[in-house]
Each structure stands twice: as C-alpha cells, then as structure tokens.
Design brief:
The chain is built from six helices and three strands. The chain is mainly alpha-helical. The chain has a three-stranded antiparallel β-sheet.
Length: about 140
C-alpha cells in the first residue's frame, strides 16, 4: 500500500483527523513522513498502529496503558506478562464499574417501584434523592 494523507488515514483507521494529530503529539504515533509541502503521509504500519490504538480505546484502555502495550508490541521478543498484567488490571476496573452500575440499577429500580403512584410528598424518588446518606460511597 502506498503512503496516504491524513484524511485517508482517518478513513482507513476509523480515527478522526484531530485525534491522529493528538496521538502524534503525545507520542503514541510516530511523526509521519511529509511531502515537500509538509503534508503528512501515513504508511501501512502507521495505519495498523492507529487501528491498534482505536481498538484499545474502544476497550477502555487508558492512554498510558496503550503506550505500554504499544511498546510491548514494538518489542515482540519480550514476555507477555506485562501485557497480561495491564489487561487483568483493566478487567478488574471494568468489573468494579459493573458492580457499581448494578448497585445503581437496584437502587433506581427500588425507587421507581415504590413511587408508581401517590403524591410527591410520599414519593420515594424525591425522598431518596433528598436523603444524603444514600449517596455517600454506596453507589458512586
């Protein structure tokens, strides 16, 4: 594949042009080759790297984790223990968020079920939201 300009790189990779520039700025993507008129040109390797970054972001990995994973990818002779550790830590964080969301779902379900009818003075939704003790650490 011939080197492509930034707009085409964005279309091929699914990464927006400003985001590609941002990834260059923070060092996730190396500075690309340039034409005589200073237009960026991206190689097939750049496009693969962009796809890797996009997929990692879609999975929720933070930039620093992606940076480490890219470094590992660039040095394939290393042990994959570091990559496994990053993935396990991220999985733990996802599981923690899911648990919080399930608790939130249960609280909202309880509120809705107890407030289907009646007056606002007796409304469980209003009462629960007004009660500060419900919000400290339990759901958020």
């Amino acid at each position: 594949m011939q080197d492509v300009p930034i707009g085409e790189a964005a279309r091929h990779s699914g990464v927006k042009v400003p985001t590609i520039r941002y990834y260059e700025t923070i060092g996730l993507l190396p500075a690309p080759a340039r034409t005589e008129s200073q237009r960026r040109l991206y190689s097939e390797a750049d496009l693969k790297r962009l796809a890797f970054i996009r997929h990692a972001r879609e999975l929720g990995f933070e930039v620093d984790a992606i940076r480490t994973l890219l470094s590992l990818q660039d040095n394939p002779g290393q042990s994959c223990a570091a990559a496994d550790a990053i993935a396990k830590a991220h999985l733990h964080e996802v599981e923690r968020r899911i648990a919080k969301l399930k608790a939130l779902q249960a609280e909202l379900t309880r509120m809705v079920e107890h407030c289907a009818t009646g007056r606002v003075a007796d409304c469980q939704v209003i009462e629960t939201l007004a009660n500060e003790s419900h919000s400290h650490g339990r759901l958020i």
